[in-house]
Amino acid sequence: MAAGIIEAIGVISGALGIIQFGINNFPEPDSVKSTIRITVGLDTDQLDGAGGDLPDVRLFDEAGGFLGIAVDPGQVEDGGYADISVEHNDASTKQGVYTLFSGNTDAICIAYATITLPSTDKYSWIGTWGQQCGASWYYSNVYVGSTGVKPNCMWLDGNNDQPQSGFQVHWPEFFNPEGTDLPSDPDDQQDKIDYFCSQQAPFKYYNYADVEDPTSITYWTINDKRSEDGLEERGSAIAYGPSKHAASAKFRRDSATYPRNNGTTTTGGGSGRNPHANRLVMSNSDEHTADELCESETSYGPDFVNVAHGKFCRMSDKTQWPVCDGAEVTDNCFNTDTQQLLVNGVSARDSPYSSVVDWTTGN
């Protein structure tokens, strides 16, 4: 491994992989603070729903002890990043190895997060874990350093426009020490993925329907490595065994509680307005397929077309259409010139997209 490279355990196309983060992906160290960098997934300032409010951040040590909090830390622009500094209570030098992120009003889609501890130790996590473990997600056009990897992003929100109201990460479990190989056997790989998605302490997301504003974490007890629900008042912690599946409910297309697709509304406290209903993303990346987006029950975001693959996904009903070629395919297809879906010779939209996000440049 090259000097200055931090390796994280990630998931790429459903398989375990090592994601290499460069030093420039991490915030600068501070002797009495931990600093978290949030990188937002959708790479355009036109896509208002992808940038927004940074989450509240709480830090906990390895024993579940509360270390500090940053509330309403500001905003992050689309496709950009922002650093959040959390001062440790009583200038504690304990390691904040658990981080709890609690969403605020405007949803963001997180492609990856990194942390620098006062000890200068550095850890990282990618948003594709959200998709893998059942959270709502979309593609991103954000690279991790010079790796060529564009992780998918996980949605986070505090007013029920997205189901996830928060999530926690136990950073060291996603760190891959130098010289350590990941399992190569498919069954062993799946067991490792299931571990991250089901054991709750390594990674867990919270649903608005269950917890509107998460303030506590699930952490490993030091002696017996069971999961506990650790409140800031440690005396009231309740122990329980790890569940087989992630505690958060899946984001189902037939759910009446959460935003389903473009053009639908929310109930149960959401704003009822889908900011992506009039937006289109265009890509030519092999990592971005209309098949995956349309076939996923948990994907959420703008309509999508991969011009290289010749496929369009209409997110309002998760249906796929070929791209019109002007010769053999001229109807019941998506016209990339007019940016209209033609169905039986008629444009399916009453008006053009108000925002077209072009990810084809440079890919």
List its salient traits.
five-stranded antiparallel beta sheet, single chain, six-stranded antiparallel beta sheet, 3 helices, 363 residues, 2 domains, mainly beta, Lipoxygenase-1
What would your notes on this structure say?
With 363 residues, this protein is mainly beta. The protein has two domains: 5-240, PLAT/LH2 domain (Lipoxygenase-1, Sandwich), CATH 2.60.60.20; 279-358, no CATH class. It has helices spanning 128-132, 186-198, 290-295; strands spanning 5-12, 15-22, 33-40, 52-53, 56-60, 66-70, 75-76, 81-87, 98-102, 108-116, 122-126, 137-138, 153-156, 164-170, 203-207, 217-220, 227-230, 238-240, 279-283, 303-306, 311-314, 319-322, 333-335, 340-343, 346-347, 355-358. Strand 10 and strand 11 (122-126) form a beta hairpin. The model is unreliable at 43-49 and 230-271 (pLDDT under 50).
How many structurally independent domains? 2
CATH class of the largest domain: Mainly Beta
| Low confidence ranges | 43-49, 230-271
Shape: elongated
CATH topology of the largest domain: Lipoxygenase-1
Mean pLDDT: 83
Annotation field: number of helices: 3
User: What is the level-2 CATH architecture name of the largest domain?
Assistant: Sandwich
CATH superfamily of the largest domain: PLAT/LH2 domain
Q: Which strand-content bin applies to the residues?
A: 25-35%
What is the number of E strands?
26
Q: Any idea what the radius of gyration is?
A: 21 Å
Through-space gap between termini:
26 Å
